[in-house]
Amino acid sequence: MTSGDLFLQQLINGLNLGAMYSLLALGFTLVYGIMELINFSHFNVFMVGAFIALGVLKLMGMDGQTVILSGLPLIGVILVTFVVTMFATGMIGVGIERVLLRPLRAVTGPAAMILTIGVSYILFNIILIGVGGDTRNFANPLPSITWAFGGANLRLRDVLIWFIAIVLMLGLTYFVQYTKLGKGMRATAQDPEAARMMGVEVDSVVGLSFFIGSALAGASGLIFGLYYNYAKVDMGFSAGLRAFTAAVLGGIGNVPGAMLGGVLIGLIESSSSQLIGQAWADVIIFSILVIVLVFRPAGLLGRQAPNKS
Amino acid sequence: MPRKRLRRGATPMAKPDILLDFSGINTYYGDLHALKNVSYTIERGEIIALLGGNACGKSTTMKTIMGVVKPATGTLTFDGESILGLSPAQRVMRGIAPVLEARRLFPRMTVYENLEMGAYTRKKGADYDQDLERVYSLFPRVKERRNQISGTLSGGEQQMVAIGRALMARPRLLCMDEPSMGLSPLFVEMVFDIIKEINKQGTTIFMVEQNASMALSIAHRGYVLQTGVVVLEGDARDLEANPLIREAYLGEMKVDADAE
């Protein structure tokens, strides 16, 4: 491979990572936008999502890389796995909000954020006890179809991951932009008290933001499995931290910002692995976070000053 | 203090047609006693002005009516039924809509989306279209700007959108918190004309205002609130003539500089 081909290959890899980080970053940003809460349990909702997906695939007879499907059965299996995983993680998110966070709604200060750290550990230990701490081979029913793309290899898997991420992000954008509930969510994010006085039920908006964010984390966990072909109990930490960085980079609370930030972090990770070495990827990602926080604290697409008159 | 109850066009024998009865309300923020046994009655078709300086409890009154602040004691009935147990959304559905202090538009939504938010508790349909037309005919400028991001409008234009947004709820009672705040004199005139017009079309209006002379000039009755206590109430014409009011609110027209 020439260096140009390598660059192209890293672009493809970076877009896969970017799809994963974007979906995960959206959960941070949605909840932060509504409640100004950094939800650290999101890291491990993502991890639990990967294991739920593993379980769903197993139930359908997929184990390891032995079963390869094509055509309609493949589409069916992928669709069912995504829908079930997303619904399950969405409900986990709703449960966390309803049972644990809602009683703390009136409490000011960092109590709610610290609670989410605790929830994160609980989820971690549930999987540790229930499934174990070793690396699990992720079932992957995708045939290994590869196209030559310039000098790089474009696999069916890459295209599928992009397709799913784009569909989910377009769906979310449509929902937030054009539906009544989505407008209620935006209004609540911009002025919660005024939104309440227009008749927006804050509880349902908060619950909805947790459902959507956690469902996207589930999709992201499944994409992680399909991309890396494994799932492990500690996978949430580094992916979650990078996705959180992506949300801050794009401007936390800003939906297009999270999408952009995720793709940028994915591209930065893959190109720095290529140019400098894998070990330096995190150094570069978090250096960028520090630089952004110093020079543009509201993020790339965030508002630089409150827009009130 | 003798209470004056002379309503235009009502025979003295007629039972007052009370739309909102705010009675014996005490509201606290922690240790702060914000409303001290406060009562107002608002009759159908009236314009009521609530006057008072900063931090006197005017905004707390608004928030209590809208249901975002819960009073410790007292009763609050709308159209004869208690609404204290109702959520803000349910109160909007009953027909109470707010025009909030400092407009409080959703700054990154378009003008049209802000109007939509006013009708959040309603279904879209013929009624909705009719109300939208009503808002556009009251405020042609709002129609022109309907696709603009509302945070980019001037203060006066934002106030038009804020009033329009409240009208989209098709309210029977419009609660306005400082509708003239921060507006140029030209817009202040216009806003008060519009308030009068909306009232003529049948909407009862409860208006918190620092601009006492303008407020009393269009109001039927008024209340004066000082540090959480109603110190004066009565016919707007009498209040305008009251020496205390003349001194405190009309002689020295203080413009609220520390808004927000």
Write the layout of secondary structure elements.
The complex is a heterodimer of chains A (about 300) and B (about 260).
Chain A: H1 3-35, H2 41-59, H3 71-101, H4 111-130, E1 136-137, E2 146-149, E3 152-155, H5 156-178, H6 180-190, H7 192-198, H8 202-228, E4 230-231, H9 235-250, H10 255-275, H11 281-295
Antiparallel strand pairs in A: 1-4, 2-3
Chain B: E1 18-29, E2 32-43, E3 47-51, H1 58-66, E4 73-78, E5 81-82, H2 88-94, E6 96-99, H3 111-118, H4 126-138, H5 140-144, H6 155-167, E7 173-177, H7 185-200, E8 204-209, H8 212-218, E9 221-226, E10 229-235, H9 236-241, H10 243-251
Parallel strand pairs in B: 3-8, 3-9, 6-7, 7-8
Antiparallel strand pairs in B: 1-2, 1-4, 4-5, 9-10
Helix pairs in contact in B: 3-6
Q: What does the model show?
A:
The complex is a heterodimer of chains A (309) and B (260). With 309 residues, chain A is mostly helical. Chain A is built from eleven helices and four strands, in the order ααααβββααααβααα. In chain A, the strands form two sheets. Chain A has a two-stranded antiparallel ribbon with strand order 1-4. In chain A, strands 2-3 form a two-stranded antiparallel sheet. Mean pLDDT of chain A is 91; it is low at 305-309. In chain B, strand 7, helix 7 and strand 8 (204-209) form a beta-alpha-beta unit. In chain B, helix 3 packs parallel to helix 6 (155-167). Chain B is globular, with a radius of gyration of 18 Å. The A-B interface holds A 180, 183-184, 186-187, 190-191, 193-201, 303, 307-309 and B 66, 68, 87-89, 92-93, 98, 100, 102-109, 113, 116-118, 120-121, 151, 155, 158, 165, 169, 260.
